[in-house]
Amino acid sequence: MKIQSPFFCRPFFCRLILTALLLMPLAALHAAEPKTGDSKRLDLGDGVTLEALYLPPGEFMMGSTPEEKAWATGIEGGAQPGTNRESFEGEQPRFTRVMHGCWMGRTEVSVGQFRRFAMESKYVTDAERPDGKTQVFDLEWDGYRRAGGKVIQPWKPMPGKSWRDPNWGFPNRDDFPVVCVSYNDMNAFCQWLTERERKAGRLPEGLEYRLPTEAEWEYGCRGGSKESHYFWWGNDLEAGEGRLNISAIDFLPGRTKTWPLGKAPWSDGFPFVSPVDHYGEKGRNGFGLADMCGGVWEFVIDHFDPKGGHEEIHYENAEKRTVSRPVCRGGNYFDVPGNARCAVRLGISSVTYSDSRDGFRICLGPAVPRQ
Fold this sequence. Notes:
- The structure is a single chain.
- By secondary structure, this protein is an alpha+beta fold.
- The chain has helices at about 10-30, 65-70, 110-120, 185-200, 215-220; strands spanning about 40-45, 50-55, 60, 95-100, 100-105, 135, 145, 150, 155-160, 205-210, 295-305, 325-330, 345, 360, 365.
- About 20% of the residues lie in helices and about 20% in strands.
- The strands form five sheets. The protein has a five-stranded antiparallel β-sheet with strand order 1-2-5-15-10. Strands 13-12-11-14 form a four-stranded mixed β-sheet. The protein has a two-stranded antiparallel ribbon with strand order 3-4.
């Protein structure tokens, strides 16, 4: 007599089990995919870490409107009218896509994180090399006085200064964003981080740590918004109180003066640079990224195109994949409000130039072609 097998052998249940087995790997894979705002903490050694957040693929409007440019050069924005600076943002906002997910530093790279890199790699920055110099604040500067018809600026190139001592006039701190580093220096940090993570087996094939592209940076700055706002929180400057470090009502160290020219109508607590992520949750945008407006200018990997940023990485020479004039974004602690918007972009004079208003944040994304 033939014995009937358990019900599992019946066609319906066999199909059900087979379907479940087929779907299990897909479900596991889906569960492993990072989600918006997921965080990873990179171990740089000696107890130093760096936090990066996941940004999904997405789209946004790059650039600014004529109305935004007019605000930036008006009374509240305080940017100097009559220059071509705002034209660098493009004539109108344009639809732009970021086709891949990436991980971006929650903050700019800090002095402590850069110190760890320099100690392990024995790297010497461009400013520290023989005949090197960097642009820093002139401690003897006492105002925009005219001498022979020329305005005296508060910044001057100075040898003997570097990321170790940016000439603040007060001690540098490990939780300050690193400044006085060049495009070359920033790329060296990213290469060191890539090699370190790859050696540890923590870096997937085809990915690298690098500077963000312009599209990645502005997408990250806008925090997931598809609207063309002036700042990541919207168009209202006064809603920025407690969110960013720009020129505000703060006395310069040892003086009874604030920065001249246009400024935010509150004290942000720092006449110069503030510590990274100092403003906490309120200073983080929709992606959780901190200090995207103000703080220090942040370099991106692209070559500067005065007509506007690009969806794909832009090179000076596409065939040779060269960059000789990098782009910086986002404004800095000295800037007027109109110069600290999401769309603001400037070209830097060379890949060796450094300044006490300039820094960077890292991005983990698809490797980009280089020379």
